[in-house]
Amino acid sequence: MTFRMTAIFVLLLCATAFAQGQRRIKQSEPKVESAKLATHEGKYYVIHTDLSRDEVREADLRMSKMAEEYHERTKDFAGEIREKFPFYLFRNEADFIAAGGKPGSAGVYMNDTRTLMAIAGEALTADTWHTVQHEGFHQFAVAVIGGELPIWVNEGLAEYFGEAVFTGDGFVVGVIPEWRRERIVKTIRARKFLPIRQIMLLTHPEWNADLRLENYDQAWSMVHFLIHAEEGKYRNGFAKFIRAVGAEQPWEKAWLAHIGPADGFEQRWRDYWLKLPSDPTNDLLAQATVKTLTNFVARAASQGQRFTSMKELVAAAKTGEVKVPEKDWLPPGLLVAALLDVQRMMQENGDRFTIETPPGKLPHVRHVAKDGTELVGRFTLRAGRVNDVVVVSGNKNRS
Among 37, 58, 124, 354, which is most exposed with the fewest C-beta within 10 angstroms? Predict the structure, then answer.
């Protein structure tokens, strides 16, 4: 469920639309022939699009859950979501460009209109969602966080959410694609990243005047470090830093007060990435896959369809016979992608996935990694509907 390397270059092309930072917002609409677009009003987004009904449902579901993820992960320094965000999702690139999108890009946040726009193309893909999740954070940051975030923080957090994996009822964040970890290690060793103090001092215009793939990788890797390194040691300080910046405290002063000197940070950041093992977040990818599978198994069970093995689930998925209730709809492509991940993890890592149904109980999904670590996806039903889906460690509670 990761995106191809080209997605980063797409972001380089569209970054200029956010070049002016949190300037005064002019409330106006992009230049769009409204007759071409239908409007769908969801929980957090007003979606203007020419896509099919199910594609619109998927966009609304994903982005509603993403908005909640933005808010949950930034609640220590963000406000409340008090408005619905405009989101234009076009089938064709020509319409995207006519509305103000940059040629060659797949999506953009337009700060002058506070509008998120993206191209779906022939089919919605992981690349599409990475771009939308990244650019959508810029939109959220202006509306809900406020202040003028340093450009490396803004882009680093946007990439952090861009890497999040959708499970049907939420996201798993903190994922590190292996190809990207390898690239970051290579860049650190080649000393091609900017000195930490230099990237921290970059302004929005300076960032956009010299768009570099390395800057996006560095910003993302710095944010990831601050959130996850040393069991979250720096997370609270990072939140306080962003809150102080949002309150218009000079960011240099806020950084020193809550995190410390940039020089010491640089060495810790370098050491963290250089010491990470290969595929460091396989556990998170397994968690996302188990959660996704359990979401579909749960919905099928709510319709009286019980799977007793992965083989049965795969067969039903291939013929489109996995039952999903209208009120708890999930995009069929999400299950297809999860099953491809199952196949990959079994072949590459030696993982095992099973569906088990103890006597008198609901089925559950079990994942066993090569090292014996287990995850179990469980669900409950209430009044015939899916009530709760959770993924727990299975080692201490073997069914």
Answer: 354
Q: What is the pLDDT of residues 322-365, one digit of tens each?
A: 999 999 999 999 999 999 999 999 999 999 999 999 888 999 99
Residue 12 has pLDDT above 70, yes or no: no
- 177-185 contact pairs (CB < 8 A, 24+): 177/2, 177/3, 178/278, 178/279, 179/2, 179/5, 180/217, 181/273, 181/276, 181/278, 181/280, 183/217, 184/217, 184/218, 184/221, 184/273, 185/273, 185/274, 185/276
Pick from 106, 112, 114, 111: nearest CA to 133? 106
Q: Report the C-alpha gap between 319 and 321 in whole angstroms.
A: 5
Residues 6+ apart with CB under 8 A from 392: 375, 376, 378
Overall size of the chain counted in residues: 399
Give the torsion through C-alpha atoms of 7, 11, 14, 17, to 10 deg.
Answer: 150
Enter the pTM of the model.
0.89
Q: What angle do CA 131, 202, 106 make, to 5 degrees?
A: 15
Q: What is the CA radius of gyration of the chain?
A: 22
Q: pLDDT tens across 41-95, in order?
A: 999 999 999 999 999 999 999 999 999 999 999 988 888 999 999 999 999 999 9
Q: How far is CA 182 from CA 53, 177, 188, 349, in A?
A: 39, 9, 10, 18
Q: Where are the domains of the chain?
A: 1-280, 282-393
